[in-house]
């Protein structure tokens, strides 16, 4: 059986809806002090139900918190709508988070914004309300929880017929868009051991420009590493299913100047993960080491450089740091205290490493950073000189690199001598020839 209001034409429905809202407000004002509370409440609910039945619009209320924890949809909508502000918006909210490079803009309260999604029109309004202690059932029960003086909420209005689409597609899509936007904005940070800092870590922005495009290394190794990182970060379900901590270990080995530190920076920039540079020479004892590791965040890369040298660091006899102690702690309960952690060890001498580190299953990938190959050189020539095509000097350089042992750092140094490709490549050929002559004469001694 249909109600009278359902049979009305649309313009009439709108009129009835407005009239009902007006009547509701007037009634509430007039009767507030004349009628018993129960009757007043009944009348207000009756009018509200009448107005919602005749309206073709549905309004979602998205509060900033439930009184205990922030509402993730509210936070995501704030981030997402900040990227949707139109040039005609008359007021916007701007702030600068600590340690971030960019200003963050968002919608200001009492402002409206219209968004579209799969042909739907959605109207967002940001409202704020003063909090009364007893206004929220959860807040009034637990006073120590979030009890802000003012709370905010979004009203999201759209046609009732899109209810399922909004709940099942639009809002989940906003959650994932906001995650992407946050990741793009996030400045990667470098944490270094600092006993005066919180959790023994000091922090600065890592503005290392290395990316996978600028790193000179064997293309198949680079591609395998990128694939490994992608499957690691997308592996939440897999790690859960197999009951393993969500972490990954890489051993980077190769001579000095082959790009081990640059590769760590490239990985951090690619994943937008913070880097924790754990210099074991700075760590006094096992309890400090544990405190440092516990202080590392999720989505981070913990780097222990020159692991072959670290274990010779000054050690306290009674509370000695040993490599196996470190590895046991990393593999033990600590590893389940955070998600998406990558542990990187670097060394110039893989042959000198403690076998405990090389044991199968200990480090997931061993990555060899080699002397500069011709394909590595082409990456550097592109980075430093903008050369993308073949060049007449390339044949000589390819031949020389097959015989020479030149690090990418040394080649990069030569490529920086001049910005003129002719001068620079001629100089590089000379450099490689001299180097080869020198090493042959040493060999013949
Ligand atoms: N594979 C590479 N690709 C691009 N640039 C590189 C590479 N290797 C070295 N470089 C250049 O040389 C500089 C020094 O390299 P880097 O410190 O990354 O090498 P490393 O292997 O970590 O050396 P060390 O073992 O001495 O710490 C870098 O800043 C970078 O400019």
UniProtKB/TrEMBL annotation:
Q: Which cofactor does it need?
A: Mg(2+)
Q: Which Pfam families match?
A: AAA, AAA_assoc, AAA_lid_At3g28540
Substrates-to-products reaction catalysed: ATP + H2O = ADP + phosphate + H(+)
- Supply the Gene3D superfamilies for this chain: 6.10.280.40, P-loop containing nucleotide triphosphate hydrolases (3.40.50.300)
Q: Does the keyword Magnesium apply?
A: yes
Q: What is the lineage of its organism?
A: Eukaryota, Viridiplantae, Streptophyta, Embryophyta, Tracheophyta
**InterPro entries reported for this sequence:** AAA+_ATPase (IPR003593), AAA_N_dom (IPR025753), At3g28540-like_C (IPR058017), ATPase_AAA_core (IPR003959), Mitochondrial_chaperone_BCS1 (IPR050747), P-loop_NTPase (IPR027417)
Any GO BP:
response to stress
Query: To which species is this protein native?
Result: Punica granatum
The GO terms describing molecular function are: ATP binding; ATP hydrolysis activity
Please give the name of this protein: AAA+ ATPase domain-containing protein
Question: What residue stretch is flagged as signal peptide?
Answer: none
Q: Which residues form a coiled coil?
A: none
What keywords sit in the KW lines? ATP-binding, Hydrolase, Magnesium, Nucleotide-binding
Keyword Mitochondrion assigned to the entry: answer is no
Q: Which residues form the AAA+ ATPase domain?
A: 246-373
Family recorded in the similarity comment: Belongs to the AAA ATPase family. BCS1 subfamily.
Spell out the CDD domains in the cross-references.
RecA-like_BCS1
